[in-house]
Amino acid sequence: MLLHPLAFTLAPGDRVAITGPSGSGKSVLLRALALLDAPHGGEVRWQGTPVATAQIPTYRSQVCYIAQKPAVIDGSVEDNLRYPYSLNVHAKARFERDTVVQLLTKAGKPAGFLDKQASELSGGESQVMALVRALQLNPQVLLLDEPTAALDPASARQVEDLVDAWFNPGRALIWVSHDPAQAERVSNRQLVMKAGKLA
């Protein structure tokens, strides 16, 4: 699904929920905002300035996209959480196990979860891992593509609480959801996407 022309602004403090039928373009929009798929027209601006190609890694360090089916690397959960620190954009930061354990605890996972092999994770566990992998980096914006789709209701609420604990008035998020009740809980602004159009 291609997107129709749109003008969209995400401001500090915004918690935007996007609902809509499957195939309506919700994931396409998030990937475009994350500059994973370059838009064919128009531009993505960060703090009022167009994002140049050379600035994309730095932009993505502040605007984190969490896919519904996140990518994992071979090894343990801890290996996956340490991976971002091997990238140049995070070269000055370091992995903090205590911080990660606190995040996992809020998401209902014990410290031993770090030792689990990524290849053995369920879909829901992979989603939790991907969210913690992003949150440990203290991004300013989260682009969440149905981050609780593979979780039971209780685990989904824990993830909602984890994101809520990360949020502050200087940050912003977009949360794609098929659950109207969840969209109501996690947002202060709700939009609907149909056939590539955002309303």
Concise structural overview:
By secondary structure, the protein is of the alpha/beta class. The chain has seven helices and eight strands; from the N terminus they run βαββαβαααβαβαββ.
Secondary structure topology:
Layout: E1 15-19, H1 26-33, E2 45-46, E3 49-50, H2 56-62, E4 63-66, H3 77-82, H4 97-106, H5 123-135, E5 141-145, H6 153-166, E6 172-176, H7 180-186, E7 189-194, E8 197-198
Parallel strand pairs: 1-6, 1-7, 4-5, 5-6
Antiparallel strand pairs: 2-3, 7-8
Notes on the structure:
- It is a single chain.
- The protein is an alpha/beta fold and 199 residues long.
- It has one domain (15-198): Rossmann fold.
- The protein is built from 7 helices and 8 strands; from the N terminus they run E-H-E-E-H-E-H-H-H-E-H-E-H-E-E.
- The strands form 2 sheets. The protein has a 6-stranded mixed sheet with strand order 4-5-6-1-7-8, sandwiched between helices. It has a two-stranded antiparallel sheet with strand order 2-3.
Question: Which properties best describe this structure?
Answer:
alpha/beta, 6-stranded mixed β-sheet, 199 residues, Rossmann fold
Q: What's the CATH H-level homologous superfamily?
A: P-loop containing nucleotide triphosphate hydrolases
Q: What name is given to the CATH topology?
A: Rossmann fold
Q: Biggest sheet, in brief?
A: 6 strands, mixed
The unreliable regions are none
Fraction in beta strands: 15-25%
